[in-house]
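User: Hi! I'm working on a homework problem where we have to compare a predicted structure to a textbook description. Could you give me the structure for the chain below?
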Amino acid sequence: MVHRTQFVKAKAAELGFDFCGISRAEFLEDEAPRLEKWLHRGMHGQMGYMANHFDQRLDPRLLVAGAKSVVSLLFNYYPAQELPAGEEKYHLSKYAYGTDYHFVVKDKLKTFLTAIREEIGEVNGRAFVDSAPVMDKVWAKRGGLGWVGKHTNLINKQSGSFFFIAELILDLALEPDGPVKDYCGTCTRCLDACPTGAITEPYVVDGSRCISYFTIELKEAIPQEVRGKFGNWMFGCDICQDVCPWNRFAKPHREPQFTPHPQLAEMSQSDWQDITEEVFQTLFRKSAVKRTKLAGLKRNIAFLKGEREAPAGTGDRKKE
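Assistant: Happy to help. Predicted structure tokens:
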């Protein structure tokens, strides 16, 4: 088991994953009542998929028959240089600067799973990256990759929180890692900075009040009650992470595919307001921004500009 575990961790590093932690595949007993309460309070808003597959979210053995281990992985996306900010610029969440992480990380996970089978033999397993009912932050916490902060993002003591989280769920017994302690202390910067009050209390986020929800998940007109609170965020929001003291340790990623299109840095507010389908496709050909489609992005921009926009069809999330 030790040799297998060493191989898995070495291969993860070789593939460019920044951290790898392992936990036993078992029922998440402590999380069940928390998830049920969060859903009951309607904090998932229109994200109906969050209520689907409740049992599978809590037990990886229902996703992979005979599962014994969850291999949690962190993949850094913190940019070497952020896109220009300020009152005259619309803002894009850092995770969406380059190629959609689903493509980049999923390819690495497929390579990873193949390498494990070549080294060890027949292994039943599946790869996940924010695309199925897996409580990725919980598993990453259990695997010792960090703690879940008051803004509910995973924080790594060495490198902050700008990571994508991915998993391999395997029917392979590996040496588990233990969790680390919570280092948020008395800090409340994320709660104090959230302009829409989405962090309702430490460690609880009302997803239906988050700027990321309004600009990405919401499929209708953005409520007038939050006008003036977006701070020029047209897709996603990084405020709670940007103010977190632990992100002073964030290091630039090493993934060329996460480099933004050079034209992005040159876009002015008027360029965004006049954006065409052709420009949208050029800037975001393989980007996560395509989730909103052009109509959704234009709705967000119109909202920021203060115009009265009609509800825009922004597409449906891919079914799980």
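For your comparison, note the following. The first helix runs from residue 2 to 14. The two ends are 33 Å apart (CA to CA). Good luck with the assignment!
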